[in-house]
Amino acid sequence: MSTRESQAPDRAAAQAALPKGLAANPRLSRWVTVAPDGTVTVRVGKVELGQGIATALAQIAADELDVDLAQVRMAPPTTGEAPDEGLTSGSMSVADSGAALRQVCAEVRALFVAEAVATHGLDPDTVTVRDGVISDGTRSTSYGQLATRVDLDRDADGSARPKSAHELRVTGTSVPRLDLPDKITGKPRFIQDLTLPGQLYGRVVRPPSPAATLTDVDTAAVRALPGVVSVVRDGRFLGVVAEGEDVAERAAEALRAAARWHEEQTLPDEDDLPGFLRACPVDSSVVADSGTAGEVVRRVRASYSRPYLAHASIAPSCGVARWDGDTLRVWSHSQGIYPLRRAIAQALDMDEARITVQHVESAGCYGHNAADDAAFDAVLLARSVPGRPVHVRWSRRDELTWAPFGSAMSADIEAGLDATGNVADWSYEVWSQGHTSRPGYAGSPGLLAAAHLERPHELPPAQDPPMARGGGTARNAVPGYTFPRVRVRAHRVLRAPLRSSALRTLGAYFNVFAIESFIDELALAAGRDPLEYRLAHLADPRARAVLEAAAELGQWSRRGAEDSVGHGIGFARYKGRGAYCAVVAEVEAVHEIRVRRLAVAVDVGRIVNPDGVRNQIEGGAVQATSWTLKERVRFDRQRVTSADWESYPILRFSEVPRVEVTLLSRPDEPSVGAGEAVHGPTAAAIGNAVAHALSVRVRDLPITTERVLAALQD
C-alpha cells in the first residue's frame, strides 16, 4: 500500500481535528511502542471488562500498522503509562479509543515508512507494508529492524490519513477473543487470583445499615487471634489484616461480633418508590420542548416505574494495595484508573504522582460497582502493614447491600392523538436519583470507606452526566419518533437514602421501557399494529431498517398464532446518537412468565468484530431479561435485606431465552458501541409481549407473577 502523506490535510487543521482522546494524550509513545523483535505494544486508557474491547482495539491497531494480529500486545492499563482516557463507560470504547488509536497507528506507520525510505533507499511511490515488513519489491526492512531508529516520543499532528473501509483487512472479521483462552482453561488472570510476594489478606466489617454509627468495639480479642497481623479502626471503618484468607474471615467475624452500633430508620417505603421520588426535593430540567401540537381528539396517560437494581456480578469486588514508604501501588478492576488515583489522592491528601493504579480484570459489572471501594479498603488496610501487599475481597452480602445501586425511577407519559390515531402531542416526565457518584464526583472522593473515617469525606447525592455526554435520568427520555409536539422534563432527586450510581445504560433502560410500552398502548388505542404504528412515526431510514429486520427475524407476521404466547417489539437508538436496536420478544405466559426467544437487529455503524458485537448484544439481552422479570433491591426502613441470591434472584441458566442477532453492516459509518443498545428495547419487547399474551399491562418492573395477577384483578 502506497504512502498517503501527500493526501494529508493542512497540518494545523489536522491537529485541531484529532480525536478527543488523542488530543488529550497526544504523545505517540504513550499509545504504541515497537520492540526489536517486531512486536507492537498497545496501551489504551479503556479497560477490558469482558466486553471484548481489547480484541477489537488490537484489530484496529493491526489494520492501521499493517502487522499481523499476533504481533500486537495489549498492555493492561496503568496510570503513568497508558493514556488517560477517563472512564470505560457509555459504550464509547471503540468509538472514542478506537478513533484515537486508528490515528496514532496511522502516524506510527507513516514514521516507519519514512525512516525506511530515508535509510534503506526504498522507493516512496511503490513502498508497501505487510505483516510489519516494509518493502518496495526490491529492498525491504521491518518495524523490528527500525525500532531503535524511529522516535515515537513525539506528539501526533494529524498528518497521516487512517485507512478507508475498503482498505481494512482485520476490521470487520470475527477474530478469536484474545482474553478467552486463559478464561476457558482456568489460567489465573483475575484480580481475585492475584498473588504478590509477601501478600496479606484483609477483610472489612461494614456497618449493619447505611445510617448506623459505631458506639463501641473491643479489638483486643481479635488482635490476639493467631495469624492476625493488624486490626484497623478509623471512625466507623473497621478491618483486619491476616496471614491467610481463612484467618481474615474468622477475625472479621469476631470483630463484627465485638462491634456495637446505633441504627436509624432512614430508608423509604419500598412499596411506594414513585411516591418517594416525587416527594423529594429535585433538580428539574427541560430536556426537550419543541414543535406545535396537531389537532387532538383523544388523550392517553400512563405511569411506569422501576425499583433499585444491583450490579450483582457473579464475583464480588476485590482490591489490592501496597505502601512502599511514601508511595502507593494499587491493583483494581476499576473502570477508571486515573479517576480512582485522583480520588485516593484526595481522600488521603496525597500527591497523586506518588500513586500508581494498575487495572486487573474481574467479573464484568458494566457500571460503578464496588471495585473502587474495594481498592480503597485495601489502601487503608495496607497502610497498617508497610511494604506488604494486602488483598481485600468483599463478601456477597457486602456486594449486594453496599455497592452503589442503579436508581429507582418513575415516569408519567401523556399523548394526544389525532383523528387517525397518530401522535399529535407528546409529554414525558421522569423522576430518579442521579446516575453517577463515581470517584471524584461533586468534589468528593466518592469512596465508601472515605465516608466512614473519623474525618469523613461525605457522599453527596449522585449527579447526572450532562446531556452532551448522554445524560443520566434523561438518557433516552426523548423518543426517537417524529411527533409534532414534544415536551420532556427530568427531575433528579436531591436525597440519597440509598447510594446510587452508574448501572449499565443509566436511565435509558427504564426510559425506553416506558416510552416503548406506551407506544404499544397508543397503537392499541388507535386499533393499529404496533410495528406499523412505529414505522408511521419514524423518518430515519436506519431506524426503520432495524425495526423491519427485527420483525422479519422475529416472525412478526405469525403474531397471535399460539394461545398464551405473546409477541412484543421495542426499539431505540441508544442516547439518540449511538447504536440502533430493535427487539422482538416471544413470551409464554401460562403458569409463569417465560421469555422463549429474543430476535434482535442492531446497527452499530462500522463493525470491527462481528462476533464481539453479537456477544455484547446477546449478553445485554439476557441481562435485561433478568432485570425485567426478576431483579429488585429489597429493604425495610432501616437496611437492605436482599443480601444473597435467594433474596436477590437473577435469571438462571434454565431460564435464558434463545437470542438471535442480525447485524446491519454500515462500513462507511463511524463505529458506535454495542454493549448498552439492547437493554431498553428488550425490556419493552418483553413487557409488550406479556400484554399481548394476557391482554393486561404491567407498568411497574419487574414483571413478576404477583404483579401480573394484581393487574388481572384491577
Give an overview in words.
- 29% of the residues lie in helices and 21% in strands.
- The protein has 714 residues and is α+β, with helices and mostly antiparallel strands.
- The chain is built from 19 helices and 24 strands.
- The strands form 6 sheets. A 7-stranded mixed β-sheet has the order 9-10-7-17-14-15-16, sandwiched between helices. It has a 5-stranded mixed β-sheet with strand order 12-20-19-18-13, sandwiched between helices.
Blueprint (SSEs and pairs):
Blueprint: H1 11-16, H2 20-24, H3 28-31, E1 32-34, E2 40-42, H4 53-65, E3 72-74, H5 93-120, E4 128-130, E5 133-135, E6 140-142, H6 143-146, H7 180-185, E7 200-205, E8 213-217, H8 220-223, E9 228-234, E10 237-242, H9 245-258, E11 259-262, H10 273-279, E12 282-291, E13 298-306, E14 318-324, E15 327-332, H11 337-348, E16 355-359, H12 371-382, E17 390-393, H13 396-402, E18 409-417, E19 423-433, E20 485-493, H14 508-526, H15 530-536, H16 541-553, E21 565-573, E22 580-589, E23 593-603, H17 610-629, E24 658-663, H18 679-694, H19 705-713
Parallel strand pairs: 2-3, 7-17, 15-16, 19-20, 23-24
Antiparallel strand pairs: 1-2, 4-5, 5-6, 7-10, 8-11, 9-10, 12-20, 13-18, 14-15, 14-17, 18-19, 21-22, 22-23
